[in-house]
Specification:
By secondary structure, the chain is mainly alpha-helical. 51% of the residues lie in helices and 10% in strands. It has helices at 2-10, 33-36, 68-74, 78-88, 100-111, 121-136, 141-161, 180-188, 190-199, 202-213, 242-266, and strands at 17-20, 41-46, 59-62, 175-179, 218-219, 229-233. It has a 3-stranded mixed beta sheet with strand order 1-2-3, with no helix packed on it. The longest helix has 25 residues, at 242-266.
Length: 267
C-alpha cells in the first residue's frame, strides 16, 4: 500500500485505482485504498458477503467528491467532450457539468434497461436497512463476530486436515483454496505428485469425495486458482462441520496415496 501511495504522490497523480473491498470487512484492521488515495480511487463493495444476502445483488460504487476523474474529463479533447455531451444530453441541459459518478449511474441504467433498470424498491429498502444497521453498530460488534466465526471455521477445517498454516493478518478466511499438488509434493515427494498428474485430474478427487463422503467442493481453477486446487467456503455451514470436511478430504487423498504405493510396490 505504501509503495502505491508513494507512486501516486511522486510520479503518477493521474493514476486510476479500482479497489474491490467486498472481503475487507472480514480482515481485522483492513484499510482500503480509498482511505489513503481517495481522489484516485474507485471503491467497489457488495453487501452480499458481510450481510449474507448473496441473492439480493446489492452493491455500491463510491468515489470521492474531489476526484481526479471529473478533472480528467474536463481536460479531454474538444471532440471527445462533444461526443460525451451528446451522450448525456438526454438527462440534462448541461451535460458538461455531469459528475463522473452520475455518468456511471446513467450508463448503468442504459446497460440495465432491458433487465431491471436498477435496484427494485425492496432492494433499495434492504440496502438502506443494512447501511443504517452498520452505522448504528458503532462498536462494530457484528463485524467482529463475523470475523470470529469465519476464523474459527478456518481453524476447524485445518484441524480436520491435520495441517497448520502460518498466521496471516491479511487473511479474510471466507474461502479456503487448498492446492492438493503442493500437499502431495510436501507430504510424499515429487514421485507421488507425478503419479497424480499422470493418472488423474483434480475433479476426480472431487467426484470421489462427493461419492464416498457426500461432501461437494468446488474446483479452485474455476476461481483463478491452480489446476489442482479445491475451494471450500467457510460462509454457510456450522463450525462442527468443517473438521469433518477436512477429515473426509484427507481420507480421500489418502486413497490415492495407497494406490500409488501399491503401484510402486509392483515395480
Amino acid at each position: 500500500m505504501q509503495r502505491l501511495v508513494k507512486l501516486v504522490k511522486s510520479k503518477r497523480p493521474d493514476l486510476i485505482i479500482i479497489t474491490d473491498d467486498v472481503y475487507g470487512t472480514f480482515v481485522p484492521g483492513f484499510r482500503s485504498c480509498m482511505a489513503e488515495l481517495p481522489q484516485n480511487t474507485i471503491g467497489v463493495y457488495s453487501y452480499s458477503k458481510h450481510f449474507g444476502c448473496t441473492g439480493w445483488r446489492l452493491g455500491v460504487v463510491a468515489v470521492h467528491q474531489n476526484n481526479i476523474y471529473d478533472k480528467m474529463i474536463a481536460k479531454l479533447p474538444a471532440k471527445t467532450r462533444a461526443a460525451l455531451n451528446h451522450r448525456y444530453s438526454p438527462i440534462t441541459l448541461e451535460p458538461a457539468k455531469v459528475k463522473f459518478i452520475d455518468r456511471m449511474v446513467a450508463d448503468s441504467r442504459m446497460v440495465a434497461l432491458n433487465h431491471t433498470a436498477g435496484l427494485s424498491l425492496p432492494q433499495q429498502i434492504q440496502m438502506a436497512l443494512f447501511s443504517t444497521f452498520a452505522l448504528l453498530d458503532k462498536a462494530n460488534s457484528y463485524k467482529q463476530l463475523c470475523q470470529l466465526i469465519c476464523h474459527r471455521r478456518f481453524h476447524a477445517l485445518f484441524e480436520g486436515l491435520n495441517l497448520t498454516l502460518p498466521a496471516d493478518k491479511t487473511r479474510a478466511a471466507y474461502y479456503v483454496e487448498l492446492d492438493l499438488m503442493v500437499w502431495a509434493e510436501k507430504e510424499y515427494g515429487p514421485d507421488f505428485a507425478k503419479f497424480l498428474r499422470k493418472n488423474y485430474q483434480c475433479t476426480d478427487v472431487l467426484f470421489r469425495l462427493a461419492e464416498h463422503c457426500g461432501v461437494v467442493l468446488m474446483h479452485g481453477g474455476g476461481f483463478g486458482g491452480p489446476d489442482w486446487s479445491v475451494r471450500v467456503s467457510l460462509a454457510n455451514l456450522a463450525e462442527d462441520t468443517y473438521p469433518k470436511i477436512g477429515k473426509y478430504l484427507r481420507e480421500t487423498a489418502q486413497g490415492y496415496v495407497e494406490e500409488w504405493k501399491a503401484v510402486k510396490g509392483k515395480k
